[in-house]
Specification:
73 residues, two-stranded parallel ribbon, 2 strands, elongated
């Protein structure tokens, strides 16, 4: 199984979960220092970090190997 197929399968499964994607806890703890701007989220998955950054006035470019994840974000 190639990497793209593996990650697409993983994210398809996670889309059935009722929870929204969560940002990394370390990133979340730093939000008081956020001032907006631009951000690049590489291997963004379902976008927990991207969403958090966007909520804090960042223009986010999100990239992932999984087209399932990118379509969700």
């Amino acid at each position: 199984m190639d990497d793209k197929t593996k990650w697409n399968a993983k994210y398809k499964e996670r889309l059935n979960e009722p929870e929204e994607p969560k940002p990394n806890s370390r990133l979340k703890s730093l939000t008081t220092y956020f001032s907006g701007g631009t951000a690049l989220d590489i291997a963004c998955g379902l976008g927990g970090n991207s969403i958090l950054l966007a909520e804090h006035n960042y223009l986010v470019q999100a990239i992932d190997i999984s087209d399932v994840a990118i379509k969700f974000v």
